Amino acid sequence: MALQNFNPIPNQTTHADATNLLNNNFTEAENRINSLETINSQTSVTSVSNIATFDASSNKAFSITMTEDTDLVITGANTGDSGIIVVRQSSPANYTVSANSTNHAVLGGSFSSFQFITPDTGVATVSWYYDGSEYFLYISDAV
Fold it and tell me: C-alpha distances in angstroms, 124 versus 1, 65, 97, 114?
């Protein structure tokens, strides 16, 4: 639904008409803001059997705290969607991260750059873009 313009007609448009239109527009604006807040929230994902699946149909921003060697799999995106995955290490374990799915291509950076500087904790990011057939990934260095 789009916001409606207010075009009063002399001697026909009532105060109630104006109030209804404004209330409808406020409701529409509030729904859009709530939708954006949901989209911009971050979803935490855990790996199961060494695979972490990030469903882009429900969100575009994700985080994962490594608990095992993990293959990152992004699904559910529409053409033109993009997002980010925040990868955290919370213990000094040397977990490996990969994206071995056939439709994931690393354009920049490398998962080998996930050598966390701080031995106990660290963070890195994976930015992604979906072109309709392939997910393009850019991997940051870890800190």
Answer: 39, 11, 11, 7
Kindly indicate the confidence band of residue 54, based on its pLDDT and cuts at 50, 70 and 90: very high
Q: Tokens standing for 133?
A: 């057939």
pLDDT at 44: 83
Burial 10-37 (b: 16+ CB within 10 A, else e): eeeeeeeeeeebeeebeeeeeeeeeeee
Provide the percentage of residues in the chain whose pLDDT is more than 70.
81
CB within 8 A of 18, min separation 6: which ones?
6, 8
Cβ atoms of residues 97 and 72 within 8 Å:
yes
